[in-house]
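Submission sheet (multi-component)
Chains listed below:
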Amino acid sequence: MKQRMPVVENILSANDQLAEENRNRLEAADVFALNLMASPGAGKTSLIEHTIKGLSGQLDLAVVDGDIATSIDADRAAAAGAQAIQINTGGECHLDAVMFQSALKQLELSKYDLLIVENVGNLICPASFKLGTHLNVLIASIPEGDDKPYKYPTMYRGVDALVINKIDLLPYIDFDMDYFQRGVEVLNSGLVTFPTSCRTGEGLEDWLTWLQEKVANHNPVASS
Amino acid sequence: MKQRMPVVENILSANDQLAEENRNRLEAADVFALNLMASPGAGKTSLIEHTIKGLSGQLDLAVVDGDIATSIDADRAAAAGAQAIQINTGGECHLDAVMFQSALKQLELSKYDLLIVENVGNLICPASFKLGTHLNVLIASIPEGDDKPYKYPTMYRGVDALVINKIDLLPYIDFDMDYFQRGVEVLNSGLVTFPTSCRTGEGLEDWLTWLQEKVANHNPVASS
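Outcome: structure written.
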């Protein structure tokens, strides 16, 4: 790993401080938050749509959508039934704690149990910028190929759960699941994984159950 | 678009100067170079493998492979029969002109007609850093979804050709080709596109023919 310039270290350290402020703001309002990351088109917005619908009536949910341009994703989250805040990064390749803070200020946090942040579609840059969420979740996508843990180790190392999406495409793609899983295991031993298909619905039940438990354990009031 | 900080402008301007030096070095050796960009798993390495094999005996080809970690891609290019130089970016999300220059210094350029640079898998950052190549080529991948031109406009705006890969998966995915193509047309009117499947070989002939013509027109000696 090459050495970072002091200016880069300072930026990251300032970001961490703001991320801590964001976390305190979430805690004060009893909101559990997760940062959803993936490369473009892995299924972040689709998983969020399924999560909104699957938890409807059980948890009050808001979404913060990070994108370079357009509000396509936030519009989809809103259509699925959640309060959605769009952040256009203006070309930046990741969300940071400043952008997240500005989104948090637009939400009446006490109304929500769960906040999902959809980060910018990118397997690299978002891994370096904490937002202050409680969990980092990565979506891998079968058509991306089985070598991605090996090629994007920082991202795979830093997450708390892994959704392996588009498993409905496995019959049509050369994807060695053992090779993929070995790469994940080396980087992030024991990582909880959810093989899913947002297209067919397969595997989503396990994801929703796990997420509900995480929210409930953080804030027992929300699950009662 | 938000304003860039002066420090960012300076970095990009220094990069542009080095990119020009790289271009001069390529011209002096009569080497035609292309910068291949795409998100992770879109098929950059597969397209390079097919290009190496398809042009074997007609053009002498070298590959410069940019990756965060590992030499998986360079190993595949070498196995397909090309001279391959690996650049590990040490976490950086894109290649820049400095990294490309260091790779060029490792190659005996006069031996080659065509140099393909495989950039880091990322739809955002590589678009901002010129390398000094003659062409920028983007690979879109069907499973990424049909909204990508709208969501990553800078990348789509800045390229000279677009390969639309994994068309063999069209029957299994909700992908509206008209919607996709309209987005491309707005950003980059008249852009030459190559629908391909690196898995089945469909469409690769057109890509190879076009690329050979580009090399021949740049350097008539190489095509004789």
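Remark: Chain B has a mean pLDDT of 93.
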